[in-house]
Predict the structure of G-D-S-L family lipolytic protein.
Amino acid sequence: MNKKTVIILLLPLATLTLLFSADKVLLKIFGIPVKPDLRDVFFLPPNTAVVYQGPEFSYLAKTNSLGFRGREYQKPKAVNTVRILAFGDSFTFGNGADENDIWITVLEKNLGRRLKDRKIEIFNLGQPGTSPYNYLDNIKKFVPLFNPDILLIGIVEGEDIGQIAPPPEKQFIPAQSGDTVRNRLLARIAAGQSFSDKTVNIGRYITNLFPYFSALLSPYKKVDIRPANMSNLVTLISRVADEQLTSIENTIDPEVLDMYLKGDLNPNLLSLAIAKPDFFSAFMENDEIVKQAAEKLGVVFNEISTVAENHGAVPFIVDIPYGLFISKVRADTMVKMGFMYSGQPWMSGEPVDFLKQAASPSGMTVFDNLSYFREKCADDCFFPYDGHFNAKGNKLLAKHLEEYLMGFLKKN
């Protein structure tokens, strides 16, 4: 073996040794930032920063000392400031979007640019996985604390209505051999987990080998949502009834089922598809459900209106469009995911009509965004399967709300 070959063979080893030694010296001098230890990767405690990585998006989410997304919120309101509090679920929180791309952040920037004589503050008080009842609880807690001028209550078409409406009757395909189906599904999940676990282990090995350099390259904790999704899916499949397992294989598109089993899709959506396949659209098909749901949501809106009035704030209901009601492409994707609908929901005005019916007793104004989204975005404003707004969807919502609020602010 000649000298040149020896050098070529030893160079990588020498480089790794040098990097390893340098890493240990720098680690001893500067240390590394402490990353949060999350018990539930989908729930962020206060003062946490995490990069979420999935098949459809990768984004940084930071929470403040209150556990909400965005900067620290000052309690005293500065002079000549319009303060707006936004309440809602993951669509308000901004799942899938970096801070600068959330509709709330974009709206604050756009209004501030147009209103030169006043400062605009919009606080993001959205929390993933919550319902209108939770919005009301947060309104009661934070409106007295922050003294806002305006409240924005984001109501997601179909989703929030489905949480208020009575659950539809369950109809399942007759069960076959439940244990066989269960074992087959769990085996497919395990096959995907083994690859994911290997990937995670390699990442951990590199991080342990070069902790200081790893911290420089990735200062935030990274969360791959797939292993967490698969873990939750194992729990779901282990608990559901035999006939439900049969319906999973018989009604969900095979390609989409494979995505579920690989952890690419939120298992909560699968749980809904199994138990309430018409969860998002049931309110359109039953007058009694519409009446009961509108009454329940109306009670929530009345309480919100009372809290706002008692603290000198003006509340608005923000209609947040959902893909099922925007385009047939989005509706058909949901069918592949295990959901069902009747008629042509992408042409119906019922989602907004329902909100206006529920809001009527309280006198609250509904900001209607449905027609605007149908005109401007069709099926390209949402992540195809996750369903939340992508960057375009967030910007469109901010743009339309900007016009509503500019009209209000010019008069007040």
